[in-house]
Amino acid sequence: MAKLVGARDMYAIRTWIAPVLAELLVRGKRTVDEGAI
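^ that's the sequence the OP posted. Answer follows.
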């Protein structure tokens, strides 16, 4: 049971972290682009 819950938690964390990382990457790229200008 513990392993199933752990796997489910990992999946939930990954699905939550993926869009967050994407958002940070987009913001970082915008900051670099603005800095280049």
